[in-house]
Amino acid sequence: MMHPSQGDKRPLGEETQMRPSRSVNILGLILLGWNLMGLVAFILQYDADLSTLAKDDPYTAQIFAQMPGWAWAAYAVAVSAGTLGATLLLMRKAAAVGLFLLSVIAVIVQFGYSFLGTDLLAVKGAATAIFPAIIFAIAVAQTAYARHLRAKGILR
């Protein structure tokens, strides 16, 4: 007995798996690129030559020098979990949701320190919060997107 769908030659009862649209791959690659840029930014900032940085931006060099290990760890977790989450999203793995959520939490911890544990806003102004707000919004959006894909059965 054949499946009643026109053009589908599979026998009835054979499981069909919904093929995700091309947009899932495209958006997944964009998210992977975004998270890889975050990973590179972390490596460059963590490994920065503070004496060279201090010549152009002494305040940022001071912030990096005084940043506690737990804040650096939160930064590392944020970018690593986001990168791994994007990779798993491309592999259609539901674990991407948890990794993206972990990334959001780590972003909150990291920027919580930056804005509440330092005088960054007073020294550099409110405009300093724009890019971190974008980072936070993308972290939340990629989590919501992965949850949506999991709910649709695309991530398993």
What is the tally of beta strands? Answer: 0
Radius of gyration from the alpha-carbon trace, in angstroms: 21 Å
What are the segments in which pLDDT stays under 50 over at least 5 consecutive residues?
A: none
For the largest beta-sheet, the strand count, sense and barrel status come to:
none
Number of domains: 1
Question: Which series of helices and strands comes N to C?
Answer: HHHHHHH
The fraction of residues in strands falls at under 5%
Number of helices: 7
Class from secondary-structure proportions: mainly alpha
The oligomeric status of these chains comes to single chain
How much helix is in the residues? over 70%
Mean pLDDT: 91
Keywords: Membrane, Transmembrane, Transmembrane helix
Transmembrane segments: 26-46, 70-90, 97-116, 122-146
Protein name: Sugar transporter
Organism: Sphingobium vermicomposti
Give me some keywords for this one.
about 160 residues; mainly alpha
Folded structure, characterized:
Keywords: Membrane, Transmembrane, Transmembrane helix. The chain crosses the membrane at residues 26-46, 70-90, 97-116, 122-146. This is Sugar transporter. The protein is mostly helical. It has one domain (22-151). It is built from seven helices and no strands. It has helices at residues 22-46, 50-56, 58-66, 69-90, 95-116, 120-124, 130-151. Helix 2 runs antiparallel to helix 3 and helix 4 (69-90) packs antiparallel against helix 5 (95-116). The protein is elongated and about 55 Å long. The model has no long low-confidence stretch (mean pLDDT 91).
